[in-house]
Every structure is written in C-alpha cells, then in structure tokens.
Design brief:
The complex is a heterodimer of chains A (about 850) and B (about 100).
Chain A (H helix, E strand, L loop, with lengths): L2 H36 L5 H27 L11 H21 L33 E12 L2 E10 H24 L8 E7 L5 E4 L3 H20 L3 H19 L6 H32 L17 H5 L8 E2 L6 E3 L1 E2 L4 E2 L1 E3 L5 E4 L1 E3 H18 L8 H4 L5 H22 L6 H24 L3 H21 L3 H28 L17 H15 L2 E7 L3 E4 L1 H19 L5 H25 L6 H6 L5 H16 L8 H7 L4 H5 L1 E4 L4 E3 L2 H31 L5 H7 L1 H8 L4 H73 L6 H22 L3
Antiparallel strand pairs in A: 1-2, 3-4, 5-6, 6-11, 7-8, 9-10, 12-13, 14-15
Chain B lengths: L3 H20 L3 H25 L5 H31 L13
Helix pairs in contact in B: 1-2, 2-3
Chain lengths: ~850, ~100
C-alpha cells in the first residue's frame, strides 16, 4: 500500500470519525440552551439529538466500510469446519502477504489484513500494535502544552477496534435515543408529578418537565464516550473517562429530587474516583519512565518520537527483560522496536539503555487497571452499578450496560501491550470473582432492572477474565455482543416498565406475553444470546453454528479459560468459575423471563393496565434484536471477529511460556483453537442445564422456589444483602470517615473556635484598658485644664461687682498709682 | 499771685469731684462730681494759659472742655433718664446688673 493511499485513507477516516465525535457536542450545546428557550412541551431537542447521533452512525458506518475496504479484509470467508477454516484463513493471510510484498513494502503499509483464527505456528511473528503503521492511523488534533519532555495534546488513534466501537456505540445510541423519545414522553409537560418524592404535607411533588435536559445529557455522554474511544493518548482517555463519569452522574441523578437517585449518583461518581486514584498513579509512573502518553506515533516524519506501545515492546512484540525477581528490569525500545532506547544525558551523550524496573511496570499496569475496576464495576468497586438503576431505563441501557461500563474493558484491550503477565493474572482473577458475585446475586433479586444490572457486572467480569487469560479477541468480542444484547434487554425491560406504569417488581408481573408480545420475544432473543445457547451438532455451511451472538463470544471466552488453566494447572479455578457461572447466567436470565412474561398474573391491577409500547419504542427493539442475534455471525471466523483481530497486539497470537516472574504460560491462538470444541460442548451443556432448571422452577413449577429459599435461608439472606458489601464498606470506610469527621469537628470547635474566642476576648480586654486610660488620664488632663480656667475666671469674676462707685474708685486709684509709678521709675 | 494757688484750687476741686463721684449714691450727684472734675481741669488750663507758656491755647482748650462737658452731661442725663425709666430710681447701687 502506498504512503499516499495510507494518508488518504487515514485522513478520510480522521475526518469521518472526528465529525461523528463532535456532532453530539454540537447537539448538546444546542439542546441545553435552545431547549430551555423552546419550552417544556417541545420535542425538538429529541429530534436534534437523534439527528446528531444518527448522522454519527452513518459516518461511522462509512468509516467502517472504508477501513474494511482499505484493509482488504476477507470479511466473508467464514469457516465451515475447523480445518477448512484454518486453511481458508491461511489462504487469506497468504494472499494478503502476497499483496504485501507486491507493494514492495515495509513501514509505509497500512491496514494489514485480518488474520482471523488459526494462525498456524506459534512462531508466526506478525507485527501489530508495536508497528502500528501497519494497522493504525494516529495523529494529533491540537497540542495543548509542553512540560519539559512531556507534550500534552489531543490525539486520535484509529484502527479496526476504533471503527468497530464507533459503529457499535453510535448504533446503540441511536436506537436508545429513539426509544427514549417514547419512554421520556411524560416529561413533556409543565407539571410533572413525581410519585417517589413526597412533600411535607404528604402529596406528590410537582415540577416542570425536563425532556430537553435528558437529551442534552445523552448527547454529552455520546460525545464523551466517542472521545474516549477515539483518544490517541492515555491522558486524553483519562479526560474523557472523567467526562463519562460526570455524564453518568448527571443521568443517574436525573430525578434530582429523589434522595435515592441523588445518593446513587454520588455513589457512582465517588467509587469511580476511587478507581481513578489508581489510574493517576499509573499515569504518573508512565510519565516518569516513558516520558510520553501517546499510544503510538504513525507519522513517518516524527518516527523519532515513540509512542508507548512502540517503547515497551520490541519488534517481535515481546518485553525485553533481564534479571529475576525484584531486580528484573525492562529495557525500553526505540526505532520501532529494533534497538534499545538509551538515556540521553545533559550534554547529549547517550549513557546506557533505559532500564525500567519491572515491578514499576507491573504497578503502572495495576494502577491503570484500578481505574478500569472502578469504571467497569468489578470487585471490589461493583456496588455502584445496581444503585445506578435509579436513572431512567434508557440511561441504564446506554450508559450502564453497553458503553460506559464497557470503557474499562475497552481500555484494557487497547492498553494490552503495557500489561505484564502478572497484571493479566490479577485482571483474570478480579474478573473471575466479579462474575461469580454478580451471577449469584442476580438469582435472588426481584427488581427487573436489578437482575440486568447484576448480569452486567457478571458479564463484565467475563470480559476481564477473558482478557486476563490471554483471550484478547474473546474479551472484546464479548464486549460488542454483550453491548447489543444487554441494551436490547434493558430496552425490553423499559418497555415492560412503561407498559406496567412504572412497576419494576417481577413478583407483581406474570402472564405478560399476551399483552406485550413484541417485547416478550425481543427479550427472548436477548436471553438466549446471553445464555449462550445454540443448536448443537449442526453447522451450517456459510454461517457456522446455529446460534445467536452470545454463544460465539462466550464460547471463545470459555475456550481461552480452559486453555489457560490447562497450561497453568494451579489456576484451574479460572476455568471452573466461568463454566459454572455460565449455568447460573442461563438460570437467572430465564428466571427473569419466565417470571415477567409467563405464569399467572400476580397483580390484577398491573395486569389489567398493561399494554404494548408504542411503535417509537418497539422499533429499536427490532433493530437491536437483529444485531443481538446476528452481529457475531460466523463466530470467530466471522466479519466482526476478523475486524477486531486486525488490532490484536503482536504478542498475543503466539502465546508465551514461562513469562514474567510467576512463570505463566499464556495460550496461543493455535492452542485455544485445539480446545475450542471441547470447551464449547461443556459450556453448552452447562447453559442448557441452567435454562432447563429455570424452566422447571419458574414455568412448570415442578419445584417450589420458596422451599429452596427456606432451606438455604442463610445463603439466601447473604445473597439478598448483596454479599453484604454495602455493610462492609459502611464499616470499613463510611464509619471511620464519620469518626474522623467528628474528630475534625471537635478540633474545630474546641481548638480553633477556642482560639478565636480567646482572640476576641483579648481584643475586648485591650479595648477596655484603652477606655479606662482614655477616661482616667486623657480626660482628666482636659478636665483639669478646663477647671483651672474656670477657677481663674471665677476668681476674677469677683472684681466685677457691677457697682459704679467701686469702678470709679478703681479708676482713681489706678491713675494715682500710675502717676506714682511714673514719678518713681522715671525721675528727672 | 503766681501759678500755684490756682493749681491748688484746681486740685482741691478735682479731688472733691473725684470723691463726690466715688461716694455719691445719687446719679445726678455723680454727674455733679464729673462737672467738678472737668471744671478743676478747666481752672488748670486757664491758669497755665495766664501764667504759663502755652498762650491762648489754654483758654481755647478750656472752651472745648466746657462744650464737651455740656454734651457729655446731656448724654449722661439721657442715660440717667433711661435708667430711671427702667428702675424707677437713680440710686447707682441698684445698677449692679453687670456684676459677674
């Protein structure tokens, strides 16, 4: 591929994706200001929002097709059977390579073909993320500032993963925007009655409707999420990370006056911030040692300045380490991974290679992952997600199932080259614990949205587990399929809630399939997808197994987990937990479906008033159901998987043996492929088991679930209390904070205030002293002067008797004495 | 005769006038004392005019004094009349209103 073509394709993609990213921001600005002026009953803000995001979707789709075309992706070569697949894809790879050499290429090639499954030998060294020119297009929008060697700028990084995420996010967002026009329609009034907020005289709270504000927040969220996906450096990711957190806060707390909603919004944001603390530590370590934040530099002119992925791994995609244990160091790379980077001392001389302590690289990875724990609601920061269901259902569908919580998984996938095997093991275990916690709690909850929330926690755990055990494709594949079927299920539950007039408790539903058939069968598609059910033993020629999308992605995850645990027998738990949980997933999902739609109606009032939702709300259900069913068609040989595989970091395909300080063995594509059929069969068995169990319990009522509840009362209570995490965090954090706050109050009251009171008393006594001095000294002097004058005057007053004869005498005597004086003093 | 007897008479008149001014309670009496003083001064002036070296100036001055004495007596009598109108008496001991 020629450099001109690469640049042309790259700039086309850049413009398309930038426009798709910025349109929702324009929409937000118009809606937040214009919506206020237009009045509360106007639907125009919604139309603007839908227009912006739908245009974004069209642009993303064009970008996707441009990418696929430029990358010569043999999208429709799908596997028929395992061997044929390997052969077919190898043909594709070979043809691609032929094209490769034909263009006489080296570094200026872009858009390396999809590799698909079955690489063949473990030693197939194709360069991907650390030779990003082959598969990515990165650049800078705007340089923000330079702090010594570090430059902060707004960058973009476009590769297969980016365009896939863009298409997915914009599509789901468009569907949800359209759904929200119907769902939020009761906000189109001047006088909205909020049934959950009571005023002090006992009546419900009334306020003007906030329709326009909802769509403004949704547009802002879409802008933030797309910015996160497009970001070309980890700092920009962090900026948009926080922005999506803010949007989530605004949307969860949309019903501001409800105490539960505002508490939930606070909880979500604060728990995210706890994770972000780790993120910042990771950022600091990266800044110190790498000196840059950008993922990769693909501009041939600036190849001297490297991105993170190019610096951390060499041209074969491996970490260049030396030493053992705590003294192990990683040598940073330069020149596209061909030579070790060297320290440049002050006078420009190079003095030895830059050797970063290995444990610091682990710490950086764990730090960044801590942010992902917070954002993706993993153990131990998972408690905010169920509470986030206080927001309106479209918010839950968009933010808390498909996009924002997926940002953590996306970041792990994007930042994969920076994670050492130890970090990956931690990720796997965190994911493993999370998926089990989420699934077990989902069995017992009765609120339809809570079931889906815990299911989301569990599925995110699956994705993290997959990424941790080396199944990079499996994790991100599941991300995209999960986005579709989870948002579908959330919208279906929104439709149910809307139809039952804001009733969310499943114990009051039942028998709704007659009243809401579209919703029922759309939900069925989602439930089958998440359970990973398939029709066994049949493989169709073009599409592979007869299954919905969830089967393929879960299959991939279980296969990766099985391979990893067989390579590292001590970590066998990492296979058994996801396997068992697959059964539990099927169980609780079918439980939810049966309780909501089948059986006898539990509450006459709810059942009588239930109705199917209007077309504006059911149309998105059709679209999402289609994608939930067919987006992963062909499984791991299909178009979606191939698209994602173009971005796979180089070191994943070949696997690793005895890697890192813990001597872990990471599976290669070939090894995973060998275990595929076995893993798939076991997983399918377990899933069917769970589904059948749910059918027996909740549809046929063979066994009464109440009996089990009484029998396992302690366990049941523990699960209903959400594994007592809220109480635990209350004791661990909230109460100590209250104690410290009381110390601070006491200090404030008895030390600081006492000091201030002392100062004021001092001032008072000084002023008292002043006054006494004034009265006794200064006033006395003045008074004495006056008295003296008065005394003198009174004394002289005596002379003025008013008696005429006396005055005459005085005159006479004075004259005589004057003459006498004259004669005496001046004798002649 | 010489100058001295005239001076002596004038001095005696002067002193009598002063004593009269100082001791009389009657306002008119005080005025008479004033006249005596002035006339004593007149005698002095005329004596010096005859026996001294001031020539006729003494006698002219004496005429002035007489005129002034008359004017001043008029004014003083006006004051005494006003005083009588206000106090119904001309006892100067009753004119002690300016006392401090």
């Amino acid at each position: 591929m020629s450099p001109e073509f690469y640049n042309e394709v790259g700039s086309t993609l850049q413009w398309l994706l930038t426009a798709a990213w910025l349109l929702p921001l324009v929409g937000f600005l118009v809606e937040i200001f214009g919506g206020y002026w237009a009045g509360r009953k106007d639907k125009t803000p919604a139309y603007i929002a839908v227009g912006c995001i739908a245009t974004g979707f069209v642009l993303s789709l064009i970008a996707l097709f441009t990418w696929v075309d430029a990358a010569d992706l043999n999208a429709w070569t799908m596997f028929v059977g395992d061997e044929a697949a390997v052969a077919a894809v190898d043909d594709g790879a070979a043809a691609g390579e032929h094209d490769h050499e034909h263009a006489g290429g080296h570094e200026e090639h872009a858009g390396h073909d999809g590799h698909g499954e079955g690489h063949g030998a473990d030693d197939h060294h194709e360069v991907h993320a650390n030779d990003p020119l082959k598969s990515a297009f990165a650049g800078t929008f705007y340089k923000l500032g330079k702090f010594g060697p570090l430059t902060l700028s707004l960058d973009y990084y476009i590769d297969g993963l980016t365009v896939a995420m863009f298409a997915m996010v914009t599509l789901i967002a468009t569907c949800i925007h359209i759904f929200a026009i119907g769902y939020m329609s009761d906000e189109l009034t001047e006088h909205y009655e909020d049934h959950f907020v009571h005023t002090h005289d006992g009546s419900h709270f009334h306020r003007p409707g906030r329709f326009y504000r909802f769509f403004a927040y949704l547009s802002l969220f879409c802008f933030s999420m797309l910015g996160l996906v497009l970001a070309g450096n980890i700092f920009q990711v962090f900026v948009f990370w926080e922005l999506v957190g803010v949007c989530s806060y605004l949307l969860i707390g949309f019903y501001v006056e409800r105490k539960t909603a505002s508490n939930a919004a606070n909880k979500a944001f604060i728990m995210n911030r706890v994770g972000d603390f780790g993120f910042l530590i990771g950022l600091m370590i990266i800044w110190t040692w790498f000196g840059t934040f950008s993922f990769a530099e693909t501009n041939p002119e600036t190849l001297g300045s490297q991105g993170l992925f190019q610096m951390v791994r060499n041209s074969e995609g491996q970490l260049d380490t030396e030493g053992e244990g705590i003294d192990r160091v990683v040598y940073l790379q330069a020149g596209g991974g061909t030579v070790r980077a060297s320290k440049i001392s002050a006078d420009g001389e190079s003095s030895g290679p830059i050797a970063m302590p290995y444990w610091l690289l682990i710490a950086a990875g764990l730090g960044i992952f801590a942010g992902c724990i917070g954002k993706s609601a993993q153990f131990p920061l998972q408690t905010w997600l169920p509470d986030a269901m206080e927001g309106p259902t479209p918010v839950s569908a968009l933010v808390h199932s498909a996009t924002m919580v997926a940002a953590g998984v996306y970041l792990v996938g994007r930042f994969y080259p920076m994670f050492t095997p130890e970090v990956l093991l931690v990720i796997a275990y965190v994911g493993c614990i999370t998926l089990f916690i989420g699934a077990t709690i989902a069995i017992v909850v009765n609120d339809i949205k809570q079931v889906l929330a815990y299911s989301t926690i569990s599925q995110l755990g699956y994705m993290m587990l997959a990424l941790g055990v080396g199944g990079w494709l499996a994790g991100l594949f599941h991300l995209i399929t999960h986005a579709f079927f989870k948002s579908l299920m959330f919208l279906c539950s929104g439709s149910v809630i809307h139809g039952c007039h804001h009733e969310q408790d499943m114990r009051k539903m039942g028998g709704l399939y007659k009243k809401m058939p579209v919703t029922c069968w759309a939900m069925f598609v989602g439930v089958v997808a998440i359970s990973g059910l398939a029709i066994p033993l049949i493989t169709l020629p073009a599409v592979g197994a007869v299954a919905l999308s969830g089967y393929h992605s879960k299959d991939a995850i279980v296969a990766s987990a099985l391979t990893f645990s067989s390579l590292n027998p001590v970590h066998g738990l990492l296979f058994f937990m996801p396997l068992i949980t697959a059964g539990i997933t099927a169980f609780y999902m079918f439980r939810m479906w049966f309780l909501t739609f089948f059986g006898e109606p539990k509450d006459e009032h709810v059942y009588d008033h239930a109705h199917e939702s209007p077309r504006v709300m059911t149309a998105p259900l059709y679209i999402l159901a289609f994608f939930a069913a067919f987006c992963a068609i062909g499984g791991e040989g299909g178009p979606l998987a191939k698209l994602i595989l173009t971005t796979e970091p180089a070191h994943v395909a070949g696997g690793l043996t005895d890697a890192g300080n813990l001597a872990l063995n990471l599976p290669s594509h070939h090894q995973i492929h060998e275990n595929h059929a076995k893993a798939g069969a076991i997983a399918l068995l377990v899933a069917f088991g769970g589904a059948i169990l749910a059918y027996l319990f909740y549809c046929k009522r063979v066994v009464d679930a109440g009996v089990f509840k009484k029998q396992f009362a302690a366990v049941h209570q523990f699960l209903v209390e959400k594994w007592c995490f809220d109480e635990l965090y209350d004791v661990m954090w909230v109460r100590p904070v209250h104690v410290v706050a009381s110390w601070a109050t006491a200090f404030d009251k008895y030390v600081l205030d006492a000091f201030l009171h002392f100062l004021s008393r001092l001032t008072l006594s000084v002023s008292n002293l002043d006054r006494k001095f004034d009265e006794m000294v200064v006033d006395r002097v003045v008074n004495v002067l006056g008295e003296v004058t008065f005394a003198a005057g009174s004394w002289m007053k005596v002379l003025q008797t008013g008696r005429l004869r006396q005055y005459v005498m005085f005159i006479a005597v004075s004259v005589v004495s004057l003459f006498v004086l004259l004669l005496v003093l001046m004798p002649r | 005769m010489g100058l001295n007897p005239y001076l002596l008479v004038a001095a005696v008149m002067f002193v009598c006038g002063v004593v009269c001014m100082a001791t009389k309670r009657n306002g008119i009496g005080i005025l008479m004392g004033v006249e005596l003083v002035l006339n004593g001064a007149n005698i002095n002036l005329v004596a010096f005019s005859k026996y001294g070296s001031i020539g006729l100036d003494g006698q002219i001055m004496s005429l002035f004094v007489i005129v002034l004495a008359a004017a001043e007596a008029a004014v003083a009598l006006a004051i005494a009349l006003n005083f009588y109108n206000n106090h119904l008496t001309i006892d100067v001991d009753q004119a002690a209103e300016l006392q401090g």
